[in-house]
Amino acid sequence: MAFLHQLGILSVTPGMVVMWILGLALVFLAIRKQFEPLLLLPIGFGILVANLPSTDLMAPGEGLLWRFYHYGVEWEIIPPLIFLGLGAHTDFGPLLSQPRLIFLGAAAQGGVYVTFFTANAFGFTLKEAATIGIIGGADGPTTIFLAASLAPHLLGACAVAAYSYMALVPLIQPPVMRLLTTESERKIRMKKGRKVTTREKLVFPIVATIVIVLLVPQSAPLITMFMLGNLFRESKVVERLTETAQNSLMNMVTIFLGVAVGATMSAEIFLKRDVIFIFCLGLFSFMVGTATGILLAKLMNLFTQDKINPLVGAAGVSAVPMAARVVHKMGAEADKKNYLLMFAMGPNLAGVIGTVIAAGIFLTMLQ
After folding, report:
1. Residue 7: pLDDT above 90?
2. What would the mean pLDDT of 224-252 be, rounded to a whole number?
3. Is the pLDDT of residue 5 over 80?
């Protein structure tokens, strides 16, 4: 009889079954539809195993997945390591060749701040509202980094929302882009930027680190790792470190991060009405960020003869490089010879920095 009482099947609840379905749905989307598979696959599996009864995988102090979460996420180790890998993959050339595009990346953070106030008006605390608002930056590691500090109980829902919307960029952004631009605006061909020197690419990560950390010290964990990875890449003297940051290390921490985030989504935490609001507000934040980036580009065109294709403003959300690809596709639909990808990468990369700065501001104000 004692053996029968220890069987996990006797402890299964309806809520657990719902979470199994959700976890398997994410696994399906990752494999069949290839929606952010590198993250949604381990997150989905993490949800599944965390909701298996009698395993104690998330038992504080002893559970395997609890250790992944505690030492990797709560101790703020894994998100900065992912930024190290992102930096090693990043070429700031498109941004440096046309520095004015950095304003579009900043404007696209409008969704983060608008949603912050909106979420607070809906009854979420300031810390919860900040965590929900940052979803609009479409930057999964930054969302996780901020949630772990301000609202750990929302981490799973916010992370899944952020990565889901990153995967759905090709569906979410085009309607907003068509609504806010005319056919003639989408046909605007931008002038090629100047050639960026190797010295500029070497100096940029160092100067950017100093300036941003001096202004927003709380952004240091992410910004320093991001720029260090980029310095590895641009220095051309540490190929092994660059290769490791881009591949082996990035892949390893992605596994730990995905499983740990999924494991936080137990039925008793996730199956609440607030989760629906989080997904709706996250979508709202993403759409507003897309709109504010486009609108600033249109405003800038009123004061310059060197016109910016307003579509490029939509790439200011930091879904790299998906948002830039969507911009290019939309421009090509209007004019097959209009090549916007490299122009869109400028605000796309600026958006990454902008989202990290937004997270740093929230941490400074609310932590």
Report:
1. no
2. 97
3. no
Give the pLDDT confidence of 263-276 residue by residue, as tens digits.
Answer: 999 888 888 888 88
Phi-psi region of 188 (alpha: psi -120 to 50; beta: other; left: phi over 0): beta
Using an 8 Å Cβ cutoff, are 135 and 286 in contact? Answer: yes
CA dihedral for 23, 24, 27, 28, sign (positive or negative): negative
Cα four-point dihedral sign 30, 322, 83, 149? negative
59 lies in a domain?
no
Three-state DSSP state, 35: coil
Q: Which residue segment(s) compose the domain that 175 sits in?
A: 79-246+269-366
- Backbone φ and ψ for 262, nearest 5 degrees, come out as -60, -35
3-state helix/strand/coil string of 328-366? HHHHHHHCCCCCCHHHHHHHHHHHHHHHHHHHHHHHHHH
Q: Count the Cβ atoms, other than its own, within 10 Å of residue 329.
A: 14
Q: Which of 219, 189, 237, 191 is nearest to 337 (CA)?
A: 189
Q: What is the pTM of this model?
A: 0.91
Q: What is the pLDDT of residues 153-190, one digit of tens each?
A: 999 999 988 888 887 888 899 999 999 999 999 999 99
> How many domains is the chain partitioned into structurally?
1
Q: Does residue 286 lie in a domain region? A: yes
